[in-house]
Amino acid sequence: MNHKLDDIDTPIDVLEDNAPPPSGSRGFLPIETNAFDRCFISVVIWIALSLFWFRFMEPAGLSIWISNVIAMAIAAIVIAKG
Amino acid sequence: MHSNRLGWLLLAPTLLVLGLFGVVPFFYVVWVSFHQWNPFAANPDMIFNGAENFRRLVFDEAFLASLGATVSFVFFAVISELVLGYMLAQAFMKDFPGKGFFRTIHTLPLIMAPIIVGSVWKLMTTPSIGIIPNLLDSWFGFDLNIGQSAAAAFIVTVVMDVWHWTPLVTLSLIAALVSLPQDPFEQAQIDGAGKRQIFWHVTLPMIAPAVLATVFIRLMDALRTVDEVLMLTGGGPGAATRYVGVHIFKEVFPRTNYGYGSAISVIVLYLTIVVCWLLYVGMLAPRNTGKG
């Protein structure tokens, strides 16, 4: 019974025919991204890291500037190679 | 070149309105979030305090509790609306007596203002005069008191949101289901697929974009719920239904703490964008990977 269903095991992609040609590039991130996406991801990481730092690292005496430097480094990597 | 200029010209009014009422207020809120500002205090000036508001909010137990309550509220409300909305949409795809009447009736909550929904549900759930506590008491002997029970208040806010917004989900999904081609369903039936297989392998992938768009709309809406809940429970009992929108309202208006309230708003917007983006990527990445 189930072998008859082999051809519907792959979900139908209704967007496939209308999808525009891919305009982004593929790096180590699991999705295809353009420059804006990578900037957006960098900002998201930067804010998350800053909030994490405020909550857990700053009380231990580590300045927020360390988090900013780490976020900048991550942003550079994501923008260049993401 | 000419058509490009015409395109920008036609877009200009929209961009202008969007800029004036969307982008400018957003940057203003971000600007205020870096200040201490109480316009009704002895010193009504804005005082720049760097990231102090953000530093404060990660330790603010009331805010973190409201965020937790909001996540629970959004999870239960959106999931329920989606499941119920899909079931109703499937029901409306079939013919039955009184279908048009029922379809009209079921969309009525959508046209009600949230503040009215809140007051109607407050009347319906007030222990002495409300119909719901009276019926629950006479049928099951259950004492519903949303002024005393935190769990009851939470459940009632979820049910109220589901009652208000399920019709939106139903209408979106009806539109998606109506537009589906019949061929894949017939092919699947010829291949011997059962109802469940057809749902998971044919229907769901085909309506996925509509489901995703509906979830986005409901997610963003549910995350900023204020008026309904404020009217129904006022955020209580205690802080049981003090969802993040209500928390911001109480921080900004009664306490006139504009800077801190703006910081919370910015973080809530950040969380909303991140959640929606992760959902989008989560549904898009497997699709792209599948294409190889």
UniProtKB/TrEMBL annotation, chain A:
- Please report a single Pfam family linked to this protein: DUF2160
Does Membrane show up as a keyword for this record?
Answer: yes
- Keywords from the UniProt entry: Membrane, Transmembrane, Transmembrane helix
Residue ranges spanning the membrane: these are 35-56, 62-80
Protein name, UniProt field: Putative small integral membrane protein DUF2160
Q: Which organism is it from?
A: Breoghania corrubedonensis
From TrEMBL, chain B:
Query: A single GO CC term, please?
Result: plasma membrane
Specify the signal sequence span.
none
Query: SUPFAM superfamilies annotated for this entry?
Result: MetI-like
Q: How does it sit in the membrane?
A: Multi-pass membrane protein
**Residue ranges of domain ABC transmembrane type-1 in the record:** 67-279
- Please list every transmembrane segment annotated in the UniProt record, as residue ranges: 7-31, 62-89, 110-132, 152-178, 198-220, 258-281
Give GO terms for biological process.
transmembrane transport
Q: Mind telling me which CDD domains this protein's record contains?
A: TM_PBP2
Going by the entry's taxonomy, the superkingdom of the source organism is recorded as: Bacteria
Compartments annotated for it: namely: Cell membrane
Q: What are the record keywords, sorted?
A: Cell membrane, Membrane, Transmembrane, Transmembrane helix, Transport
**What family is this protein classified in?**
Belongs to the binding-protein-dependent transport system permease family.
List, alphabetically, the PANTHER family matched: BLR7065 PROTEIN, SPERMIDINE_PUTRESCINE TRANSPORT SYSTEM PERMEASE PROTEIN
Q: What's the protein name? A: Carbohydrate ABC transporter membrane protein 1 (CUT1 family)
What is the organism field in this record? Breoghania corrubedonensis
